[in-house]
Structures are given as structure tokens and as C-alpha cells.
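Continuing the series of single-chain predictions for the mutant panel. This is the parent chain; the variants come on the following pages.
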Amino acid sequence: TQSTWGVTARLMPDRTPYVEQLCQVLTSAALKFQRVDADSIVKLQFTGGGQSHPQRIIVNIKEEKSLVIFYSIVAWKVDDSQRALAAEYIARLNWRMKFGNFELDFRDGEVRYKISMGFGGAQNVRSSLQMMLALSLKIFDPAVTGLQTAIDGELSPQAAADSVALS
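Parent structure:
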């Protein structure tokens, strides 16, 4: 048995590890990826599929907690002088989002989109992993475009956040 956040789930011995299920999802989507750690880390890096901003995705899988976390990282960092604008934009955008959130590291200006899901020991999570990947791909490009317009002063942070279609 396994306990995650007070919920106990029984792991089946024949369950395909989440990292293997993720690799199957990525392979079926014809995405190139690198397995960094055999048990827990998968990296993707690409621009394509209508994307105008390079996107690096790191997936951290915590099998023992039945937890999968997708991080979509912006290829450039926000300059120190623009971080207040970026923070306002991100706060306004996050308020409207249903799944996941954007984060700004004030120390170095890194911006990333994070979506995570706990599976409680579930066996087949491929469809959920596909959904997490699809959301990461769909929201990233328009949100990063909005961020760029806010920090460049083309739009206010509120107008930039409101311009991002989230549905």
C-alpha cells in the first residue's frame, strides 16, 4: 500500500511505471525526448506545431508519491528591471487559469508553466499524461507572447493577460 496526502492506495505489482507510460505518450506523439534519470526525469525541447517560442519541458515523476509534474520553461529570462511587470502579468493570468499556473523566479528571472497531478496509485494514466502534455503545449505560446508584450510595454500587464485565450 501507499499513502499520499492521507489517501491510501494499493499499488499493483504489474502497473507500468509512470515514466514508461509518459515515454509511450511522447513516442506516439512523435516528440523527441531524453530520459535523464531512468526513474523520474524526462526532458523535451522543441519549437514547432505552431509554436513561436522555444519550449523546454521537464517532467518530474515521483513514482513513490504517484505524482507527475510538468514544467514548461521559457527559453529566456526576464530582466531584473522588468520583473515587477512580469509578476503582475503572471498574477493576472494565473487568476483566470483553470489548470496549472505560471511561476516567476525573482532571483534569476526564469518563468515557467507548471501543471501537476497526483494519481493515487492508479495503473493506467496515459490519457491524463496526454491531457497534461496538451495543456502544456496549448497555453505556453500565447502566454509567453502575452508576457513579452507586457514587459516590452506594448500592453499593460492586465491587457496582456486578458488577451490570452485560455479556453
